[in-house]
Amino acid sequence: MKKRLTFLMACLMMILSTQAKPIKQTTNKMDWWNEAKFGLFVHWGPYCLYGGVYDGYRQQHGGAEWIMNRCKIPVSEYRTMASRFNPVKFNAEDLVLMAKNAGMKYVVLTSKHHDGFAMFKSNASRFNIVDWTPFNRDVVDEVAKACKKYDMKFGLYYSHAQDWNNAGGATSRKLMTEGWANPDSAYIDNFTKEHHGAWDYRQLERSFEDYIHEVSIPQMKELLTRYKDLAVLWFDTPTNMNDQLAQEIHDLMKQYPQIITNDRLKRPNFPGDYKTPEGKVPKPEDVKGVYWETCMNIGSSWGFKSWENNWKSTDDIIRTLLMCAARGGNLLLNVGPDPMGIVPEPARNCLVGVGDWLKKYGEVLYGTQRSEMYPTWGECVRKDTKKNSMLYLCVYDWPKNGQLNLDGSFKVKQISMLKDGKKIGFKQTKNNLALNLNGFTPTEKVTIIKVELRNKLPEIKLQSNSEKFFDIADDK
After folding, report:
1. Which of 311, 343, 305 minimizes the C-alpha distance to 67?
2. In this predicted model, what pLDDT tens digit does every residue of 85-121 receive, in sequence order?
3. What is the DSSP letter of 292?
4. What are the distances in angstroms from CA 237 to CA 16, 23, 435?
5. How does residue 442 score in pLDDT terms, banded at 50, 70 and 90?
6. What's the rounded Cα separation, in Å, for the pair 233 and 355?
């Protein structure tokens, strides 16, 4: 009997020791991200209640999610407004399906923006959507579950340094003229200059270091422990961050090696896994050899703006997607739901159009890589299979003489129109590939031509880090 118990105990210890070992990561965590190419960014919080308008004045500069800072709304006043946030028409599954049907592969939701309002239940601050509002629902949790249900990667944006409601959080200084014509502008501007951007004494009741330890890191821990399948953690505006505090967050993230992080924790010593150009597609030389993702609005504001009239078209987004793919990057395209939780109709319509296009031509985007070829007539996207490479020629400017030229030496198997598979004649020289397009007529704003090669092109190696950084619009 004693020998049997000893044997059972040994077996139990063996099982426990096996379970205690961390799971080894067998694939590069960037693989799914490189394959995906297209994601949905969602900026949403109680700032949408203002819609970019304060006291009858339209916010003069920047995204509507910055209204508290730019219009210098007092903490107590903003908190009162936030207590009315009740987006009863919000449906997480509808949001995620909108993204999926648009051809997007991942969602990044603002769990807490710079206004300090958490879109999840938090024990580190009562200023959250569950404890502070009649809505009393955890938006982050609902979106996480919807992503899992519909096989979408789930990511979170978290403002780790800036926080205008929880005392001690950083406050980037903006002049009063960026908000509205306040008669006390001179006094307010002097106050913010003397107090590192703060405009309310309540923001000064705790040190920045205490804020990081009492709100920022605890909230990140809450999210990291709740969502084991979290794929992306998107930091923003590292205002006031120093290397010591950034190292603490970096050490925390080491416990979650599967999570991809961007380059905004603290510059330059914490470069993250990828670069984040904002609002535009970077020049090829600025992203050579690195992972990168352009974040961009469908409109002109990250957060909901009631007077938005500058919506991008489906064609605009398709062209941006192809430009990103040709340069080897992703596009994280943003929407800002309204106070009821509804994505504005122009944004939805744009995404429907993009989704319809990708249903036909998705192979030119997913699983592709940079070609390091930049023709004047459009874009060139590369895709590798196990045996060979393919080039997708995205033609915007149709050649008047019927001949399309691509510089380079290639071993071509065949060339065809992606739309209908019709073969295209070609001639090759040592340094040029000439396609004969006579007899073909462009019927769409971008014509996709598929060039199948007999061989695989040389590997283009990427790295996570580099000394190159892109400006963060509101980190001044």
Report:
1. 305
2. 999 999 999 999 999 999 999 999 999 999 999 999 9
3. B
4. 42, 32, 47
5. very high
6. 26
Q: What is the DSSP-derived secondary structure letter of residue 214?
A: I
Tallying the residues shown for the chain, one arrives at: 476
Q: Is 50 exceeded by the pLDDT of residue 337?
A: yes
Alpha helices in 313-450 (DSSP H): 314-326, 345-361
Q: What is the DSSP string of 122-180?
A: -SS-S-BTTTSSSS---HHHHHHHHHHHTT-EEEEEE-SSB-SSSTT-B-----GGGT-
**φ, ψ for residue 48, nearest 5 deg:** -65, -20
At 40, which helix (H) or strand (E)? strand 38-42
> What pLDDT is stored for residue 7 in this prediction?
43
Location of structure tokens 């399906």: 97
- Residue for token digits 């739901």? 337
Query: Which distant-in-sequence residues (6+ apart) come within 8 Å of 218 by Cβ?
Result: 122, 123, 124
Are 38 and 321 a contacting pair, CB within 8 Å?
A: yes
* Rounded (5°) CA angle 347-351-355: 175
* DSSP 8-state symbol, 339: T
State which H helix or E strand residue 12 sits in.
Answer: helix 2-20
Q: Which amino acid is present at 415?
A: I
pLDDT(17) > 50: no
**Sign of torsion over alpha carbons 391, 469, 300, 45:** positive
**Is there a cis peptide before residue 268, judged by omega within 30 degrees of 0?**
yes
Contact 102, 351 (CB under 8 A): yes
Burial profile 173-202: b = 16 or more Cβ within 10 angstroms, e = fewer: ebebeebbebeeeeebbebbeeeebbbbee
Cα distances from 305 to residues 79, 299, 308, in angstroms, run: 20, 9, 5
124 burial level (CB within 10 Å; 0-12, 13-18, 19+): middle
Is 163 in contact with 216 (CB distance < 8 Å)? yes
Confidence of residue 12 (pLDDT cuts 50, 70, 90): very low
More confident position, 149 or 24 = 149
Tally of CB atoms within 10 A around 313? 14
Distance CA 111, CA 126 (A): 14
Upper half-sphere CA count for residue 176 (Cβ side, 13 Å): 16
Instruction: Specify the residue for token string 């009393």.
Output: 136
Beta bridge partners of 382: 369, 391
Using a pLDDT cut of 90, give the percent of the chain over it: 91
267: closest CA among 243, 289, 287, 251? Answer: 243
Strands 232-235 and 447-453: unpaired
